[in-house]
Design a protein that fits this description.
The chain has 15 helices and 13 strands. By secondary structure, it is of the alpha/beta class. An eight-stranded mixed β-sheet has the order 9-8-10-1-11-12-2-13, with helices on both faces. β5 and β6 form a beta hairpin. α5 crosses α10, α11 runs parallel beside α13 and α12 runs antiparallel to α13. The longest helix has 25 residues.
């Protein structure tokens, strides 16, 4: 038996007037998911434990079977594992976003967050900007690390975990009241604007009509995590397919292998087909029992507030991942169980994460379970069992309960 999770980051949403009261998932043309729905268990699951922030970190830990209340130590430490940053037990890591702030105001604190991802800046451009920050903000005990796209890291030796605000939670808002209380972090953010605003990379981006990456933004502080081995915990050999350092870091922490797909970038135009092919090959040729395929695009489109692009992302997942994976595994004569779900909602109305339950679809190639004709938030609520503890869902997939 083989197992596969297709994790559609931020796919769940709210009914929208622009879509006639439908959610983007309801409005999207999802021929393959709806075909599976006629043969699958569909339900709702709460992936974010009560009292915890609805981040992709806590939610994906939950889906992959690690109770965030037990294992979560912060978002950025998981990303640090992915990029190989050396962290001692008393070090603290911070996510360093390259963001777009408004530029017409005189004072830094009066600026507004216009884009938490700087137009999904390329990793190559971002690396030049992080180099400039490393040189311009150099101080003892702090070190920058290049990640992917707009997502990077700052490691503080013998640091202290402090409360910080995620930039995607304050889009369009004045940043003054959300800046760090920690003076060093605050000063570094203020100075980062002076370093980056007229950097050649940003001059070129403005000329091309793109958002400049004109400030660093620190958030997601935490200490080094210690996850139990996924294989020892579940008795299956697992692999991760994702373009996002957070998910790669979870895999490293759980002793899972990361499968790198060329052209996978975490954006709307990621290599969907490449991810599907890699997943099938891992399960049929490379000896893996479990593959976790993570697709970031729906979440990014939710943060951008674009229901049109979110629908496009969902339709591409359906056409280029769900359909081909099912077809190829069945053609190979493989018995498999496939779990499809978001980690959390990212409603286009609010442009950030919420902790509402999400719909899941569980398909078993050996047996049909008639529940609904479509897969979406509505049928999940109408037909499915409501599971309070998301970290138990993986046990259900693996038939451990």
């Amino acid at each position: 038996m083989k197992y596969i999770v297709i994790l559609c980051d931020g796919m769940a949403d709210e009914p929208l007037d622009e879509l006639g009261g439908k959610t983007p998932l309801e409005a999207a043309r999802t021929v393959n998911m709806d075909s599976l729905a006629k043969l699958s268990e569909i339900g709702m699951v709460r992936t974010v434990p009560e009292g915890m922030a609805p981040g992709s970190d806590t939610a994906n830990l939950s889906v992959i079977g690690y109770d965030p209340k037990e294992y979560y130590t912060g978002r950025s430490p998981l990303e640090a594992l992915s990029i190989g940053a050396d962290m001692a037990p008393d070090d603290v890591s911070f996510r360093c976003n390259l963001v777009t702030l408004s530029e017409e105001e005189d004072r830094y604190e009066d600026r507004h967050v216009l884009d938490h991802s700087s137009g999904e800046i390329s990793t190559e451009e971002a690396a030049e900007l992080i180099k400039a920050l490393s040189e311009g903000l150099k101080r003892e005990g702090y070190e920058f690390y290049v990640g992917t796209s707009y997502r990077h890291l700052l490691i503080q030796k013998k640091g202290k975990v402090v409360e910080l605000t995620a930039p995607h939670d304050i889009l369009t808002k004045r940043i003054g009241e959300y800046l760090p209380e920690d003076k060093v972090l605050r000063d570094m953010m203020v100075k980062s604007y002076d370093i980056l605003k007229d950097h050649p990379v940003n001059v070129k981006r403005r000329a091309e009509g793109k958002n400049p990456a004109n400030s660093a933004w620190f958030w997601g502080a935490g200490t080094r995590p210690a996850l139990m081995s996924f294989e020892k915990k579940n008795g299956v050999k697992g692999a991760m397919i994702s373009a996002v350092d957070l998910l790669k870091g979870i895999a490293v922490g759980a002793d899972m292998d990361n499968i790198i797909v060329e052209g996978a970038n975490g954006g709307l135009d990621t290599n969907y087909s490449g991810k599907a092919q890699a997943a099938v090959k891992a399960l049929t040729e490379e000896g893996y029992d479990f593959v976790y395929v993570h697709i970031e695009a729906p979440d990014e489109m939710g943060h951008q507030g674009s229901y049109e692009n979110k629908i496009t992302a969902i339709e591409r997942i359906d056409e280029k991942i769900v359909g081909p994976v099912r077809k190829e595994l069945e053609n190979a004569g493989v018995e498999f169980r496939m779990l499809i779900l978001p980690d959390h909602p990212t409603p286009v109305r609010v442009r950030t994460h919420t902790s509402d339950p999400v719909p899941y679809l569980l398909y078993d190639s050996r047996k049909a379970v008639k529940t609904a004709d479509t897969y979406n938030e509505k049928t999940g609520r109408q037909t499915g069992i409501f599971e309070e503890k998301g970290c138990c869902l993986i046990d259900h997939l693996l038939e451990k309960n």
